[in-house]
Every structure is written in C-alpha cells, then in structure tokens.
C-alpha cells in the first residue's frame, strides 16, 4: 500500500466534484479506474459522489500522482475519513447512533425543516416511490431515504434538490422550486451550485437536472 501524502487542498476536491458533474458518474469512475461505491458517498447540496474515486481524482490534482483502488482504503480508515477531515459530509461515516429515523416521510420533513416552497415537490417525489424508512444523519444536512427491502439509502433530499440513484446505478437530481442557497463560503462550491442550476431542464414543471448530454430523459 502506498504511503499517502495528505490531501489538504479543498480546491482539488471541488475540481474533482466539478468534473464528476460534468462528465457523469460512470465516465468519471471509468477514467479514474474505480468501481461504484456501495457505502461511502460524499453528499453535497449538488449531488452524491463515490467518495473513494473523488479522493483519487483530488489527490491526483494536488500531488500529480494517480492512485488505483488498491493503493488506499475507503471509508473510516481512508478516503472517507480524509475527506470528512476536510469538512465534507460522507454518508456511511456518520454514526448510526446520532441518526433520527422515521418510518414515514412527513415527520422526517418536519424535523429537517424543509422550506415550505419545496414541500409539495418533495412529497411528489416520495409518493412515486416505495421507501421504507427515512433518517436525518448527525449533521442533519439531508434526509436519507431507504427503499423497501434495502439497507442503504438510494435518495437524499437536501435544501434545494433531491438526488437519487436508479437501479442501474445512474444518478439523477431534481431541483426544488427554491434552490438558491445561501453561500456555503467557498467560491468554487458556489460556482458548482450555479452550474447545477444551469443544467436544470427548462420545461415548466419538469425540474430534472439534465444528464451530461444535455437531453432531458423526461420531456
Ligand atoms: Zn424535462
């Protein structure tokens, strides 16, 4: 196992997230030679990202050295921890003890204090799917939704978007009506958010975040 210089450059992480958004999940994983994450996802307002591959892409930007999946571990003793030390939220790392779990959506939404303007869109999303439980992680930064018979979430609601993973592993997002978020403090983060907003389908009432090819799959 390689000894890894620490990843310290948040701009390198932001650039990796930006590339992921731009090329799409599978092209990104293929480029860096990583499989799909099962457990550890980096969750932001603009999506959910395979954390080990993001780490490798950011590390390569900072240090000029490419990493393969065998070079380091993910999760608590590797990429997940290093990214969370940089201030990122890693789903799968947050303690299960600190979760608030709900068996229906309404109380989860109340506890999360979703903006009133976004409640109808959130309800519509959930009504069309079969989720068994919902939880707020200790950071309270999203509502994770676990499908019936599943053990891990496949969809996440945050303040401005819902992000979800399909059965084939592709990821999609829907923008809520109110998704202009207060500035998170970092310019590149703000820029990515604006990029994500620009990719929203313009058909009234659709709101899908467009895939990399720019063609809405729902219109
Ligand atoms: Zn559309």
Q: Could you characterize what this model shows?
A:
The protein has 219 residues and is of the alpha+beta class. The chain has 2 domains: 10-91, no CATH class; 96-191, no CATH class. The protein is built from 7 helices and 9 strands; from the N terminus they run ααββααββααβββββα. The protein has helices at residues 10-23, 25-32, 51-63, 79-85, 105-112, 116-127, 187-198; strands at 41-44, 47-50, 89-91, 100-102, 131-136, 143-147, 155-157, 161-165, 171-175. Strands 4-5-6-7-8-9 form a 6-stranded antiparallel sheet, covered by helices on one side. A hairpin with a 7-residue loop joins β6 and β7. α1 (10-23) packs parallel to α7 (187-198). The longest helix has 14 residues, at 10-23. It is globular. The model is unreliable at 181-186 (pLDDT under 50). The structure holds zinc ion (ZN). Residues 201, 203, 206, 208, 216, 218-219 line the site of zinc ion.
* Domains, number: 2
Q: Unreliable runs, pLDDT <50, ≥5 residues?
A: 181-186
The total of helices stands at 7
Residues in helix, %: 25-40%
Share of β-strand residues: 15-25%
Structural class designation: alpha+beta
DSSP strand count: 9
Q: Catalogue the ligands.
A: zinc ion
Sheet with most strands: strand arrangement: 4-5-6-7-8-9
Radius of gyration: 17 Å
N-to-C SSE string, H for helix and E for strand: HHEEHHEEHHEEEEEH
Average pLDDT works out at: 86
Distance between the termini: 48 Å
Largest sheet: 6 strands, antiparallel
């Amino acid at each position: 196992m390689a000894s890894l210089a620490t990843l310290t450059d948040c701009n390198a992480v932001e650039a990796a997230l930006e590339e992921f958004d731009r090329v799409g999940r599978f092209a990104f994983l293929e480029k860096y030679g990583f499989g799909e994450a099962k457990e550890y996802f980096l969750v932001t307002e603009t999506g959910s990202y395979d954390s080990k591959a993001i780490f490798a892409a950011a590390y390569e930007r900072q240090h000029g050295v490419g990493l393969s999946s065998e070079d380091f571990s993910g999760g608590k003793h590797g990429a997940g921890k290093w990214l969370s030390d940089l201030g990122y939220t890693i789903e799968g790392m947050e303690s299960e003890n600190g979760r608030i779990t709900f068996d229906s959506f309404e109380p989860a939404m109340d506890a999360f204090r979703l903006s009133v303007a976004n409640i109808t869109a959130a309800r519509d999303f959930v009504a069309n799917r079969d989720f068994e439980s919902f939880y707020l992680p200790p950071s309270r930064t999203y509502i994770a939704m676990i499908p019936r018979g599943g053990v891990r979430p496949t969809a996440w609601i945050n303040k401005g978007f819902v992000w979800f993973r399909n059965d084939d592993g592709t990821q999609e997002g829907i923008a809520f009506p109110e998704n202009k978020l207060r500035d998170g403090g970092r310019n590149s983060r703000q820029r990515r958010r604006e990029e994500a907003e620009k990719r929203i389908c313009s058909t009234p009432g659709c709101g899908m975040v467009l895939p990399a090819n720019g063609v809405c799959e729902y219109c």
